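Ligand-bound model needed. zinc ion.
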Amino acid sequence: MKTVIENAYIAPVAGPEIPSGYLVAENGLITALGSGPAPRIEGAERVNGTGCLVTPGLVNTHHHLYQWASQGLFQDATLFEWLTGLYQIWARMDADVVYGAAAAGLGWLALTGCTTSSDHHYLFPKGRGDLFDAEIRAARELGIRFHPCRGSMDRGQSDGGLPPDEVVESRDDILAHTAEVIDTYHDPSFDSMLRVAVAPCSPFSVTAELMTESAALAREKGVRLHTHLAETLDEEEHCKEQMGCTPVEYMGKLGWLGDDVWFAHAVHLHDADIRRFAETGTGSAHCPTSNARLGAGIARVTDLIAAGAPVGLGVDGAASSELTSMAGEMRQAMLFQRAVRGPKALTARQALELGTLGGARNLGRQNEIGSLEVGKLADIAIWRVDGFRSAVADPVCALVFGPTPPLARLIVGGHTVVENGELRTVAHDATGRAGADARKRLLQEGTR
Ligand SMILES: [Zn+2]
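Prediction:
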């Protein structure tokens, strides 16, 4: 399979931008890119990139796809109020809810430029079918690169945790199932479409033993570690009260700092925490819309970048960032840093890097995805920046400063997933409906 994109503005993220050039993808890899007219390639599909900006596909490094079915609830709640209210609803989920929510949630990500997404699934109510497999099925049908994280909670209310006891699992069950899903699904190959990570939910819903044993399991299997950290000031207080230290110090004690770890949020960091992230190569998934929606604060992204720590972006679950697009998160990240740190805090190009190569670093895939370079995987977003948007001379500015542009194409590993703003690998309208049906099932709207 060969594709030639021509006459486009190319922003490769690594290396200089090409105001008018071409990109060639063959058998899932980028084999050439450059300035001027495209070479003749026998049997290649030619894509006219006139009026388009070509970037690497966006990389989403934090999500909870099942939340697509519970958007718009608890609209004015704090994180702890929001979680406490939603746990009761989420306790009813089953594999059908997860499949419909994942199909719509991943479809939405693809429609807004995302070619690789992680997902953090940490609720496994008993007897509700194979929830982990349900979201993997949705990702495979769509054809997006997927990094599902086997989440977990073993510290319910009776042990001083936040979640009700009926949604937590035993440590033995969690570790056995996590090992099983790694053995079944994880593919470490260069062009892997699926890698599993180990992801206990958060320090306030998980025991120290589960954190430590999860890290040991991940390192034995050669997979990555993910969890929520330092999202709110409430969490910092809770951690100091119960563990006698800050969240990042607690992670250090548990062996949870390192270049195989990335944290969601990392909003409330001290200077010493930022230095430790940089020294150890620990990554952060910045989720600006969710953090603002829950009034959690704004992460110190500018400081993390200056220190050399890996930072990517995440849309977070749609229950705290309704209908959020990855391109939208680049804009939010840039605007929020500027709102608190001034107009030089984050440039459009830095925001694009957070959404692409920064995310690839979080997932340990910076050699494979995240930039347009010969030899990397052909994961490509082609944005329409013509029409109204052509009034902005700089296409990268149009993408990041403005609202999310429509996609001419989204290509994953050389395969077209989106064309002219519509899903091509799955039925576009039915995928949207699957998300609404998942909501009705979860909220029991049909039976009320
Ligand atoms: Zn989250």
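The longest helix spans residues 95-111.
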